[in-house]
Amino acid sequence: MTNAEQFETFMQNYQNMVFSTAMRLLANPSEAEDVTQEVFLKAYGNFDRLLGNPSAGGWLKTVATNLSLNHLSRYRSRWSFFSELFGAGDEAAGEPEFPAEDNVEEALMKTERCTMVERVLQELPPAQRVPLVLYHLEDLGYEEIAAKLGVSLGKVKTDISRGREVLRRKLRLKLNAEENLI
Amino acid sequence: MIPNHDKLEQEISRELKALPELTAPAAVAGRVMAAIARRAQVPWYRRSWVAWPVAAQGTALAAMLVLFGGLCLAGWEFSHAETTTQALHRAGHWFSGFNTIGSLFNIFADAALVVVKKLGTTFMVACLAVAALGYAIFLGLGTVYFRLAFAKH
Q: What are the Cα distances from residue A104, in Å, to A167, A170, B13?
């Protein structure tokens, strides 16, 4: 098997993971595709070290995360002031319409549920989605997220908390404590 | 009604971790392989420095060091000269082949100096302020346009 063929096989094994990581952070398919391409071009440069290495997946995930964050920060630094200005109505914007049944979790099939979660996640404003994804999917701590995003610890906690609250509302998650109150 | 935050955190984690991987567009692999093929065809001197042959890297490094040394020397001469003419005259000893360019630079430098003195510092500062304000206005208008044009409806 030639080097190119080996790399193609390697790419096939990891491309969905890399694309998912980028997509969940960027919430934009074409940008996620660009980042995925960039990740694999970097991987090609390090292919000698990655081939057969059990930590290759972790390396790819880290590179995908960092490139996605770089991509976001390039825009965020330029547009952040206006994002804050227009971001006041974030939660109201793009409210998805979902079935109104109380037992929505039972009513939907698992795939539909995943599609819905994915959709709600992508509709979160970046300020909430990015730290939320880093916390829950990349398993980073609050301090690490604050350092990566260059924002205060308090802002990270607030944004994650708001993001969770939006998810809770839109996904109609039922919590024991809440159910008891009802 | 305040939900249980720990429970909510667990629920959100469960929901998000249950998400399957998204399927990458089929075109990604083709694009990557095409980009790799394109890169392989790029001649060495158009690639990044680290990808150059060792001999070329050494030559380029030596050339950059000579250039840097020359700039440092020129900077030293300029900082110790009273006029640009004097500095260029001194530099001329080192770079005799660049006399014509030096004279031209000298003319432009002296002309710029006369213009600055004639217009005054206040005027120059005002010009810079107007330029900065113009940049800020265009950036602001561009931002508003971007936000409005790409706003999610």
A: 14, 11, 19
